[in-house]
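Handout, section B. The chain below has 93 residues.
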Amino acid sequence: MFFFKGDRHRELIDQLSTAGTIGLNLVSSTFIGLAMGWFLDKWLGTKPWMLLIMLLFGIVAGFRSVIREVQHIQRSDKKHDAGAERSEDEDDS
């Protein structure tokens, strides 16, 4: 059912989906913080303080998620590179 068969195309699709996930996490965290702050301001009458605080928390959470995902990508790249070096060493033997 896949249009792209093979490891090279699969890696490309994985990388594109990861990039989309990173962007989605950053944007959604920011909007969730914004919405929570707006509702809290409306409920508590603290306009605009809860909006600003929750927006800041949302932005921080989004960047934290981006950093974690980038670290995950770096770890998987190191494992992939180490596996490629091993297979090259075995081919040379």
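Note. The chain has a mean pLDDT of 86. Compare this with the example in section A.
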